[in-house]
Write a structure and sequence with these properties.
Layout: H1 3-57, H2 69-80, H3 84-101, H4 105-125, H5 131-147
Helix pairs in contact: 1-3, 1-5, 3-4, 4-5
Length: 161
């Protein structure tokens, strides 16, 4: 074997080793990302599934202190509509179940987005004590929407085909 063949052979080994190291690093990063996405999906799914079911089954302890005036007015308006609370809570149960089952996740995230925005606005304007939890819900929603962003590309096209 001459010197040129030896150097070429050595470079191929180095290239293969470097490619293997990059692949191993990417695989580890992909695994961590996959676990983070799954953890966020399950966390958001549990929150909505449990809180939605609680509306229908009443298994969580209810607050004992009286509601502030704005909160009471808002809850009264939703309950007074005759259907809106049931629709919202039914949507929460459905979305929670979809997220927990890892089925139709992009659709579930799109369905629950207006609810998450309203939860945040409710706590920002009417009940600030729950704002940190609402901020976590917003962060999970945004992170999961980003993780599933490829599913939204056709929906966000400026012109339909």
């Amino acid at each position: 074997m001459n010197t040129t063949q030896s150097v070429t052979s050595h470079l191929n080994v180095v290239d293969t080793t470097a490619a293997t190291n990059v692949t191993a690093t990417n695989a580890k990063g992909d695994r961590v990302r996959r676990y983070l996405v799954a953890g966020g999906r399950v966390s958001l799914g549990l929150v909505f599934f449990v809180c939605g079911l609680d509306f229908f089954l009443h298994f969580l302890p209810q607050p004992t202190e009286p509601m502030p005036e704005g909160v009471a007015a808002f809850a009264g308006a939703l309950a007074g509509s005759g259907y809106l609370f049931q629709l919202i809570k039914g949507t929460e149960v459905l979305v929670g179940a979809l997220l927990l089952a890892n089925r139709f996740v992009p659709l579930a995230l799109a369905l629950i987005a207006p609810v998450v925005v309203n939860i945040f606005a409710f706590h920002a304007f009417l009940a600030p004590s729950g704002l940190p939890f609402a901020a976590v819900l917003v962060a999970l929603e945004i992170a999961l929407a980003w993780a599933y962003r490829a599913a939204y590309k056709p929906m966000l096209a400026a012109r339909a085909r």
